[in-house]
Specification:
78 residues; mainly beta; SH3 type barrels; 5-stranded antiparallel sheet; 5 strands; 0% helix; 42% strand; globular
């Protein structure tokens, strides 16, 4: 599956349960199965940079995921 910037995805599985996570908090939360997030970067080798945010747009975490960990929910803006 190829993903595009702004696509909405669901975290379907965690191949790496504890991963490097960036975010506005000193200790951002770890991603969880079921989180809905947005593709914000394509890193190559089926790796994507994914951002999980609140409904009002506040970033909660930013992390790298392999495409096998993700399910497409909706295509982003064209």
């Amino acid at each position: 599956m190829d993903l595009d910037l702004s696509d909405i995805v669901r975290i379907a599985r965690l191949m790496v349960p504890d991963r490097d996570v960036d975010g506005p908090d000193v200790t951002p939360p770890q991603p969880r199965v079921g989180d809905i997030a947005t593709v914000v970067g394509a890193l190559g080798d089926d790796l994507y940079l994914i951002e999980h945010a609140t409904d009002d747009g506040r970033s909660l975490w930013l992390a790298e995921f392999h495409v096998a960990e993700l399910e497409l929910v909706a295509r982003g803006r064209e």
